């Protein structure tokens, strides 16, 4: 039994953990008034009309599409080890023997994509993802195993400590049943509606709709296997004996049901065949099936256009992906990142991030316009934009650039107007510096204010303000 990472914790046995923690009680929501019974309507359980189990519900295309879409989209995002510098900027760590190996190869039978896909699928289908840690002699996590949630039972001790009872799982190198402390399990869960240690899958909310969709499809399959002919009755205009009715029924079933469908029936004595099953059009079959798909997508928070059930409302793929990320994936992604940070016991300045560039990738025209605006605004260097496009840096491209005529408000505020003394080179009114200033009002040589031209009035105002500024300096 390969459990060396448990030795530094409480005593572990196949029966449980004893000691200061005291007796362990399984964490379960079955004690609540809701329980785990899922009814499509009140009293359905007593009438044996219950929701299918999770495995059967995955046979409904909408459930399968939502689960695989979300898990595949998150699994394609690369795990990055990030480090925060003194300026609060996060940069990727490219060399860390302690943490990077387990991010690149989580265990002996899964790569990164398969590992993340199993994690998210377990969380979506069962509401909980349990990941077992394997440590080396340094107590560094060297492998992560996604456990079958049906083989894990959360346990709570009398002092509130949390443990997990694990059944045999040989592919996870757990050869004997064991109870381990919470420090050895990464527990990522959906919203816990009744117990804080038990997440509830979206299938709980859409199970009735998925079951209805499966029933509709099964009924349609049986209908079309019967050559689209519904069941019916034989009627006669008069009274027939029971023996005659039984003989006619037996003859009709033997000759015109099963493989005999399609044969020509000759009915005498006024017998008439009447269909009993409601036609699909009258039962609004398509509308009902469409509603079940919409209800499943609503519970998984998946836009309908992502599973091919509706046309998108925007033509911009970047806008659609951003809405899909915010509505569907963001909580799952950030929960996974926090769980990895705590599970690997990263230092405070380290963190795990999923590379969202693989998801929120803009089209070529939008990318080039965005990089051009960022470079022109001076907050991104050309080499940074080239790196986003997987291009090598160029000499001189590591510095952001701005045009020379851009001045700060502080510099503009400190500007002074040139002096007005004609004897000072460059002053207003000096030779070569434009027309002389207009005479001051009231001067004997001044023209009447009503006769002054707009150009003369403007020059007079400029001269007045320039003299005031020069006097202050």
Q: Care to describe what's here?
A:
With 473 residues, the protein is α+β, with helices and mostly antiparallel strands. It folds into four domains: 1-225 and 287-361, no CATH class; 231-276; 362-406, no CATH class; 425-472, no CATH class. Helix content is 35%, strand content 13%. The protein has helices spanning 54-57, 61-75, 100-104, 112-126, 203-225, 242-256, 285-299, 317-343, 364-377, 382-388, 409-413, 454-472; strands spanning 24-26, 79-84, 90-92, 128-135, 141-147, 152-157, 162-166, 178-181, 185-189, 232-235, 272-275, 350-354. The strands form four sheets. Strands 1-6-7-8 form a four-stranded antiparallel sheet, with no helix packed on it. The chain has a three-stranded antiparallel sheet with strand order 3-2-12. A three-stranded antiparallel sheet has the order 5-4-9. Strand 4 and strand 5 form a beta hairpin.
């Amino acid at each position: 039994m390969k459990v060396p990472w448990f030795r530094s914790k409480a005593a572990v046995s196949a029966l449980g953990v004893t000691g200061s923690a005291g007796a362990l009680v399984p964490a379960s929501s079955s004690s609540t008034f809701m329980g785990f019974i899922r009814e499509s309507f009140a009293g359905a359980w007593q009438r044996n009309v219950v929701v299918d189990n999770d495995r059967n519900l995955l046979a409904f295309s909408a459930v399968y599409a939502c689960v695989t879409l979300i898990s595949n989209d998150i699994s394609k995002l690369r795990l990055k080890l990030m480090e925060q510098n003194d300026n609060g900027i996060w940069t990727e760590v490219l060399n860390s023997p302690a943490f990077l190996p387990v991010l690149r190869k989580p265990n002996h039978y899964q790569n990164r994509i398969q590992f993340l896909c199993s994690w998210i699928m377990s969380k979506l289908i069962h509401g909980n993802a349990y990941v077992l840690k394997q440590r080396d002699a340094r107590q560094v996590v060297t492998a992560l195993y996604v456990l079958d949630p049906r083989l894990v039972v959360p346990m709570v001790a009398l002092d509130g400590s949390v443990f997990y009872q694990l059944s045999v799982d040989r592919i996870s190198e757990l050869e004997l049943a064991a109870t381990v402390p919470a420090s050895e399990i990464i527990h990522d869960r959906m919203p816990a509606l009744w117990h804080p240690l038990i997440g509830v899958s979206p299938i709980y909310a859409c199970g009735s709709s998925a079951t209805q969709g499966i029933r509709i499809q099964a009924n349609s399959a049986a209908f079309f296997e019967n050559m689209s002919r519904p069941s019916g009755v034989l009627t006669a205009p008069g009274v027939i004996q029971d023996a005659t009715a039984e003989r006619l029924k037996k003859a009709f079933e033997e000759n015109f049901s099963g493989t005999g469908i399609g044969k020509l029936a000759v009915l005498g004595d006024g017998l008439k065949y009447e269909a009993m099953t409601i036609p699909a059009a009258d039962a609004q079959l398509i509308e009902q099936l469409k509603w079940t798909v919409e209800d499943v997508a609503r519970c998984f928070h998946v836009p309908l256009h992502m599973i091919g059930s509706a046309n998108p409302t925007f033509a911009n793929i970047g806008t659609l992906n951003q809405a899909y990320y915010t509505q569907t994936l963001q909580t799952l992604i950030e929960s996974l990142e926090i769980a990895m940070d705590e599970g690997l016991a990263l230092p405070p300045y380290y963190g795990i991030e999923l590379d969202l560039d693989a998801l929120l990738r803009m089209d070529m025209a939008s990318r080039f316009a965005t990089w051009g605006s960022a470079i022109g605004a001076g907050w991104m260097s050309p080499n940074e934009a080239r790196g986003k496009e997987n291009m090598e840096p160029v000499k001189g491209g590591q510095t952001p650039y701005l045009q020379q005529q851009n001045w700060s408000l502080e510099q503009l505020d400190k500007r002074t107007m040139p002096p007005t003394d004609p004897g000072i080179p460059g002053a207003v009114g000096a030779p070569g510096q434009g027309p002389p200033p207009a005479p001051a009002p009231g001067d004997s040589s001044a023209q009447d204010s009503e006769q002054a031209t707009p150009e003369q009035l403007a020059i007079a105002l400029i001269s007045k303000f320039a003299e005031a500024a020069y006097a202050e300096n």
